[in-house]
Amino acid sequence: MARHRKHIIKITSGAVIYALGIIWHPDNFYISLAIFLSAYIIIGGDVLFRAIRNIFRGEVFDENFLMSIATIGAFAIGEYTEGVAVMLFYQIGDLLQSYAVNKSRKSIAALMDIRPDYANVRRDTGDIERVDPDSLAVGDIIVIKPGERIPLDSTVIEGTSAIDTSALTGESLPRDVGAGDELLSGCININGVITARVTKEFGESTVNRILDLVENASSKKSNSENFITKFARYYTPAVVITAVLLAVLPPILIAGESFTEWIYRALIFLVISCPCALVISIPLSFFGGIGGASRQGILVKGSNYLEALASAETVVFDKTGTLTKGEFNVTSVTPHGITEDELLELVAHAEGYSSHPISQSLVKAYSGQIDLSRVSDVESIPGRGIMARVDGKQIAAGNAGLMEMLGISYHARTDGNLGTVVYVAVDMAFAGSILISDEIKQDAKKAISELRGAGVRKTVMLTGDTDVIGGRVAGELGIDKVYAGLLPDGKVARLEELIKEKSPRGKLVFIGDGINDAPVLARADIGIAMGGLGSDAAIEAADIVIMTDEPSKVASAIKISKKTLCIVKENIAIALGTKGAVLTLGAIGFASMWAAVFADVGVAIIAILNASRMLRVKTDK
Amino acid sequence: MKKTFKLDGLDCANCASKIERAIKNIDGVSSATVNFMTAKIIIEGDDSKFDNITAKMKEIVKKHEPDVVVRAV
After folding, report:
1. Chain-centroid distance, C-alpha A169
2. Which residues in chain B have their CB less than 8 angstroms from residue A287's CB?
3. Measured between beta carbons, which residues in chain A are less than 8 angstroms from residue B11?
4. pTM of the predicted model over 0.90
5. Which residues 37-66 in chain B show a CB within 8 A of chain A?
6. Which residues of A touch B33 (CB under 8 A)?
7. Are residues A345 and A319 in the same domain?
8. What is the model's pLDDT at position A510?
């Protein structure tokens, strides 16, 4: 910053001398020239110096050089006031630009201020010491006090508390944790003191991975950025060459045209020849967009993905774990001859030893405690179900096949196609049936309707489940198309067909849970993995990671992407439009050097201010 | 080998892209990206030539942006 202060003092004193020259307006030509020249050198001395140095280094189309030529040229044709003014505004603009860039770098750093500064480690002696999180190893014991940030991924061994995960997920509702629960670094401990065992080193911890990801995201450049860099490469030489032609040709070819007039026009070109405004505003917008998205729990792994998302045309969802919770719940109990509670109690005990998701859901549905000492003679019948003795009663629980195998007559469920049905028999007599199905996520319906609002033309669902289950979920959510009964490789094939069906410019987005669908994620134009919090595989496989398990975040991501792209396009239009207009007006003699300074510096500042709007993306907080 | 350097005081986006282009042409560099927003440069290149690459990279930065300080991270 000291560098800036010196710079400001120089520019201000130069400006004062310049103002003096204009107000006083000495009649003597030499005095006047001396005043303007000294103002010029005070203000632009460093630009001149750099220009000369860079010529020796072989950098001809360097902006310092161009500015020097433009201003020296102005002096040469007697336009002192404009010569100094151009240099003055160029320097002010440069300063403002550097200030704006610094400021946005800082506000992004603030957005991403989730890095824990320290960890309280408990030594074997029982002493608690404050250390750098980076110095801790897996297995170390840490203590997290209320208000502190969780320094490393760890497991609670003692204490309970509420955890604010909003910095990672954008989710404002705190999460309760107790012994055995996992803690993710970067979250804030709200009220209780927790003791925890470190499960991952700092480098591998969630917070560090997220920061790395977001920081490196803008290294993957967007098409607009590549276009502008390429454009910038040709723009400067083209403008400079035109300027030279403009200065020389008309006065030679057209009788009566003065060199002074055409040189002046050429100088206007030189002033506008720097493409800085464009070049600077695009990465700024994207970085702001990526930062804002991460604040909402959406990690975008590259500017290119954020850009592509704006043209999302087809959005393909995996069903289980993405639109539905991926966990099975008892949704209907139909007892036969006994009460509902009795039925659940017996089945829950019979299934008590099993870790199968269906068994787990039955255990969960039972309101009392499972007492496994009441259970004996457990026998699992592959593909059919389970037999066990509970309180001396012979329980059989399984599919229709099991009932048929045992020769028990049962009432077949009419809604059996909606999920998995467990038929139960007690002492070889039918006792009822239980329907277990996967639940649709709360925000799934909103997710689909918001996608449509965000301009997505087609929504598709892929599932390994049956047509009936798939169709029911899709119907309830308003999804356009369902492909059911798919094996993992079938999903890739389907996705390829869908890619062929869409328009060439539109993009296909696939959203999965990142566990079994890595090939599909990779094949889609943009792969989004959901529930990335704590899942390394998902973060690895996807282009965009949604930290929570809310499918509605996909629409939020598309909205952020569209807003970013809109700002980028505005900036390109403003910058190119203004420059183009001033160049044209300058060539035909209607623009002054003042207009040129505006087209150069003014536009750069407008573009930066416009881009910084991206940093003010609303968060849920 | 992949290495990241910080470019302290990088203010000019156009210079950043010029620097990136020049570094990509250094012998032995397989990829180079200048991230203007984080003022970082990531270079990937031959292990055996890396010292030379680093030296050349510093020269290039100096040439385009003499006020920028390069440091390894």
Report:
1. 12
2. 37-38
3. 94, 97-98, 101
4. no
5. 37-40, 42, 63-64, 66
6. 219, 221
7. no
8. 95
Residue in A104, A218, A274 nearest the CB of B35: A218
Instruction: Say whether both A512 and A376 belong to one domain.
Output: no
Q: In sequence order, what are the beta bridge partners of A380?
A: A386
Do residues A470 and A538 share a domain?
yes
* Structure tokens that stand for A190 in this block: 């709200």
Query: Is the residue at A615 inside a domain?
Result: no
CATH number corresponding to B2-72: 3.30.70.100
Residues A459 and A497 in one domain: yes
A69: in domain = no
Q: Kindly state whether residues A434 and A459 are assigned to the same domain.
A: no
| Full strand arrangement of the beta sheet holding A161-164 | A175-177, A161-164, A188-189
Number of CB pairs, chain A paired with chain B, less than 8 A apart:
55
Size of chain A in residues: 621
**CA–CA separation, A281 vs A119, rounded Å?**
38
Closest-approach residue (CA) in chain A for B41: A219
In total, how many domains does chain A have? 3
Strand-pair partners of A483: A462
Q: Domain for residue A94, yes or no?
A: no
The shortest C-alpha distance from B22 to chain A (Å) reads: 12
Please tell me whether residues A376 and A318 are part of one structural domain: no
A447 and A318: one domain? yes
DSSP state, B49?
T
Contact state of B42 with A274 under an 8 Å Cβ cutoff: no
Domain limits at A372?
A: 325-440
Residues B14, A274: C-beta atoms closer than 8 Å: yes
Predicted confidence at residue A408, as pLDDT, reads: 92
Q: Which secondary structure element, helix H or strand E, spans residue B8, and what is its range?
A: strand B2-8
Q: Is A318 a catalytic residue?
A: yes
SS (H, E, C) A262-290: HHHHHHHHHHHCCCHHHHHHHHHHHHHHH
* Residue A96 belongs to some domain of the structure: no
Distance from C-alpha of A410 to C-alpha of A413, rounded to nearest angstrom = 9
Q: Which residues of chain A have pLDDT under 70?
A: 1-3, 515, 532-535, 538, 616-621
Pair B44, B6: CB distance under 8 Å: no
Radius of gyration of chain B from its Cα atoms, rounded to whole angstroms: 11
pLDDT of residue A402: 92
In this prediction, the answer to ipTM > 0.85 reads no
